């Protein structure tokens, strides 16, 4: 192992260039450690985002050697075999500065996909009884661990082709709610995800599945939405031109 | 910038293969109908084409066509299974099996056709 590592870091916003830094190697060093070293010891003007450092918050996602990753959970040993690293902001999102992206559009799309809970009961009603092995419960569980880091969104070529495409995270969120027995918003939700920028735009390339740090499968969630929207359309429930 | 590294996985390559095989097969169709049309024009034109089709070059092209057809078929079946049945497990294996079936089909065609 060489004592140092050459790191190319994106500087600027949409327009900018890579700047190279030499950073000392440490055992068990993560890419986030490397970026933090640069900011604290070499160039304090470097902008990036992180919070928990342990893979809980999802705010440190960046493009490392061309792939979107959580930098806090990416060991340098794993990705810098040749002793070089390239760290860039996430793809498909507007760059604020250096490695920090504007996440507003990503979260707006969660809303556009009707990714919010539509309650059907009041506090006076009894609980819903949902068995752990219920089919819908299992389908919701398969996608529910998403923490909204944006890695899938950055890995998705369809978002790149169609800026309005809701993206894997928002559609995965919608699918967990479609399977929530307590939710009453499926008519609106299925209409929201059935348009040109919705689930049917997905080509099942599975970049989201390949890169999701939580090992979720948005592709399968989106496939579920495709089936449910098709059924709703046959029943005439989608309305409008969707 | 290291562009495109995020695309280097079996599902993406399966997508590329499906798209390219689909486009090439679409381009082949007019040629196919043209050749069928030769039969209406007369036996000489059709026989001329048939003798060309027996050449090794035509045979290799034809094998490629069979591979494209088989690849497009298995790719389509894989997508149908993923989207309609929701198969989650062995998704990468399905890509490999599809590619294997396509190549084997081409090989069988090549060996039987000579």
**Which parts of chain B are unreliable, with pLDDT below 50 for 5 consecutive residues or more?**
none
CATH architecture of chain B: Up-down Bundle
Task: Report how far the terminal alpha carbons of chain A are from each other.
Answer: 57 Å
Q: Structural class of the helices, strands and pairings of chain A?
A: alpha+beta
Instruction: State the CATH superfamily name of chain B.
Output: Fumarate reductase/succinate dehydrogenase, transmembrane subunit
**How many separate domains of chain B?**
1
Pick out the low-confidence regions of chain A: none
Let me know the largest β-sheet of chain B. Answer: none
Strand content of chain A: 5-15%
Helix content of chain A: 25-40%
Please estimate the helix content of chain B.
Answer: over 70%
Tell me the CATH architecture of the largest domain in chain A. Orthogonal Bundle
CATH class placement of the largest domain in chain A? Mainly Alpha
Q: What's the total number of strands of chain A?
A: 7
Main sheet makeup of chain A = 5 strands, mixed
Tell me the fraction of residues in β-strands of chain B, as a range.
under 5%
Can you count the beta strands of chain B? Answer: 0
Shape of chain A: elongated
- Run of helices and strands of chain A: EEHEEHEEEHHHHHHHH
At CATH level 3, the topology of the largest domain in chain A is Fumarate Reductase Iron-sulfur Protein, Chain B, domain 2
Can you walk through the features of this model?
The complex is a heterodimer of chains A (242) and B (114). Chain A is α+β, with helices and mostly antiparallel strands and 242 residues long. Chain A contains 10 helices and 7 strands. In chain A, the strands form 2 sheets. A 5-stranded mixed beta sheet of chain A has the order 2-1-5-3-4. The longest helix of chain A has 17 residues, at 218-234. Chain A is elongated, with a radius of gyration of 20 Å. Chain B is mainly α. Chain B has a single domain (15-113), classed as Up-down Bundle (3 helical TM bundles of succinate and fumarate reductases), CATH 1.20.1300. Helices cover 84% and strands 0% of the residues of chain B. Chain B has helices at 10-41, 43-53, 56-85, 91-113. The longest helix of chain B is centred in the first third of the chain and has 32 residues, at 10-41. The termini of chain B are far apart. Classes of the chains: A alpha+beta (242), B mainly alpha (114). Chains A and B meet through helix 9 and helix 10 of A and helix 1 and helix 3 of B.
